From TrEMBL:
<comment type="function">
    <text>Poorly processive, error-prone DNA polymerase involved in untargeted mutagenesis. Copies undamaged DNA at stalled replication forks, which arise in vivo from mismatched or misaligned primer ends. These misaligned primers can be extended by PolIV. Exhibits no 3'-5' exonuclease (proofreading) activity. May be involved in translesional synthesis, in conjunction with the beta clamp from PolIII.</text>
</comment>
<feature type="site" description="Substrate discrimination">
    <location>
        <position position="14"/>
    </location>
</feature>
<dbReference type="GO" id="GO:0003684">
    <property type="term" value="F:damaged DNA binding"/>
</dbReference>
<dbReference type="InterPro" id="IPR036775">
    <property type="entry name" value="DNA_pol_Y-fam_lit_finger_sf"/>
</dbReference>
<dbReference type="GO" id="GO:0006281">
    <property type="term" value="P:DNA repair"/>
</dbReference>
<keyword id="KW-0235">DNA replication</keyword>
<dbReference type="GO" id="GO:0003887">
    <property type="term" value="F:DNA-directed DNA polymerase activity"/>
</dbReference>
<comment type="similarity">
    <text>Belongs to the DNA polymerase type-Y family.</text>
</comment>
<keyword id="KW-0227">DNA damage</keyword>
<dbReference type="InterPro" id="IPR050116">
    <property type="entry name" value="DNA_polymerase-Y"/>
</dbReference>
<dbReference type="InterPro" id="IPR043128">
    <property type="entry name" value="Rev_trsase/Diguanyl_cyclase"/>
</dbReference>
<keyword id="KW-0548">Nucleotidyltransferase</keyword>
<dbReference type="Pfam" id="PF21999">
    <property type="entry name" value="IMS_HHH_1"/>
</dbReference>
<keyword id="KW-0460">Magnesium</keyword>
<protein>
    <recommendedName>
        <fullName>DNA polymerase IV</fullName>
        <ecNumber>2.7.7.7</ecNumber>
    </recommendedName>
</protein>
<feature type="domain" description="UmuC">
    <location>
        <begin position="5"/>
        <end position="185"/>
    </location>
</feature>
<dbReference type="GO" id="GO:0009432">
    <property type="term" value="P:SOS response"/>
</dbReference>
């Protein structure tokens, strides 16, 4: 039976909700932000995006890029309420729903005798229902697995609907930059590019043994080998809970002082807060990850009795474990902060 997977992604969700609530903002550049001394952008509307404003951008940079931007502090209770409406629409069409965030989900529409054309019709009905009931638009991608469905949903934003058929996969993936493949971040992209692998066609030209020689013997090389061929067997997991939410950053120049590391931590913790707020979770354990110039990696954690309430509490927790002894004689090449022991926000 052919799998039929839909990826639905709300268009500039938080910003669009704010435009709906404040129609006078519709033609102005706006960004929804995590406020604070090191505030960051959670999302921006399409007007602001045309100035280069995007998620995870520090607020001060958003102001520099777009001097007239309207900055709106996040209202997570409102966004969660609208998200519940949207998920109610999904549930009319399938019980197999994997939420990725408040504004994004995979749906499994697989059924005996159902075709990709049928799935396209259902996706179009979902878009229409969401627009009618919430006055918000979404983009949808339809294909035979999760990777292709998500790739499809991003091709014609906003309010687009794209279907990728199996016979189209090779041509579509051939020109896809390696950094756009699932699981490839800046560090992995750099390793691949250093070996002359820049696109899906380059990936597909390499054997599994070649990729393992570059990426090691873990899961990533086999995954990329399959994805380059349009193969993705991951199921849509209803009620899937994340194990952690975090951010890592690799630096062009190693950080040589504790003060430099602390400055970067403030930025990272603000970004982690934005991510856990977006996904509707809280957590009790902060994890700090450090990779040094000699290739060694250490982690430290701090657990509280109650969930951490924001970026400041997260920063305090990781700062407590960032002791001078931990950094003694080392330069930091990679810094990571994550939140674990997660549960859904009340």
């Amino acid at each position: 039976m052919q799998r039929l997977i839909v990826h639905v992604d709300m268009d500039a969700f938080y910003a669009s909700v704010e435009e709906r609530e404040q129609p006078e903002l519709a033609e102005r550049p706006i960004a929804v932000i995590v406020p604070g001394r090191r505030g960051i952008v959670m999302t921006a509307n399409y007007v602001a995006r045309s100035f280069g404003v995007h998620s995870a951008l520090p607020v001060y940079q958003a102001r520099l890029r777009c001097p007239g931007i309207v900055l709106i502090p996040q209202r997570m209770d409102l966004y969660r309420a609208v998200s519940a409406q949207i998920h109610g629409v999904f549930a009319r069409y399938t019980g197999i729903i994997e939420p990725l965030a408040l504004d994004e989900a995979y749906l499994d529409l697989t059924a005996e005798g159902r075709t990709l054309e049928d799935a396209e019709g259902i996706a179009r009905a979902i878009q229409a229902d969401i627009l009618t009931e919430t006055h918000l638009t979404c983009s949808a991608g339809v294909s035979v697995n999760k990777f292709l469905a998500k790739f499809a949903s991003g091709r014609h934003k906003p309010a687009g609907l794209t279907v990728i058929y199996p016979e189209e996969v090779d041509a579509l993936l051939a020109g896809l930059p390696v950094e756009d493949f699932y699981g490839v971040g800046p560090v992995i992209a750099g390793k691949l590019q250093a070996q002359g692998i820049h696109t899906g066609a380059d990936l597909r030209a390499r054997s599994l043994a070649d990729l393992q020689a570059i990426l090691g013997s873990g899961k990533l090389a086999p995954r990329l080998y399959d994805l380059a061929r349009g193969v993705d067997e991951r199921p849509v997991e209803a009620n899937r809970e994340p194990q952690s939410i975090g951010v890592e950053r690799t630096f062009d120049h190693d950080l040589s002082t504790r003060e430099a590391v602390l400055a970067e931590l403030l930025s990272l913790t603000a970004e982690v807060e934005a991510r856990w707020s977006k996904r509707g979770y809280v957590g009790r354990t902060a994890v700090l990850k450090l990779s040094f110039e000699d290739g060694t990696t250490v982690t430290r954690h701090r657990t509280r009795e109650q969930p951490l309430k924001g970026a400041n509490e997260l920063a305090q927790a990781v700062t407590e474990v960032l002791t001078p002894e931990l950094l003694a004689g080392h330069r930091v090449r990679l810094l990571g902060v994550s939140l674990v022991n997660l549960r859904a926000r009340d």
